[in-house]
Amino acid sequence: MKNLLLLFVLLLGCHDSEITLNEDDERFAALYADLLLLQVDYEHITGKGGTYAKTDSLQKIFSLHRLSSEQFNARFSRYKNDPAHWLKVQDHALSLLSKRREQLASNPSNHQ
Fold this sequence. Notes:
75% of the residues lie in helices and 0% in strands. It has 112 residues and is mainly alpha-helical. The longest helix has 25 residues, at 23-47. The mean pLDDT is 80.
């Protein structure tokens, strides 16, 4: 897993810095970050034998970000055809996750 993260970070350093994200890209990145968190949480809970309504959680995340799963899939398909843009979106999602981690570290009482 650490090797995969390292590869991801290295690839981010190689992307075209002239690509600018628009509001839709930023919303997608925020949704993508939440989906990554959900996936980690899901793996953690199910690995311990817990029950988890992943479909309900996915619907809540899509609703929170005002995107449908169809819109998500369509945008994801567009990003697949533009790898440099996709890397920029991933970079933004990673930045959002880093900010959340910093917030949790500075105020652990908010972590549930």
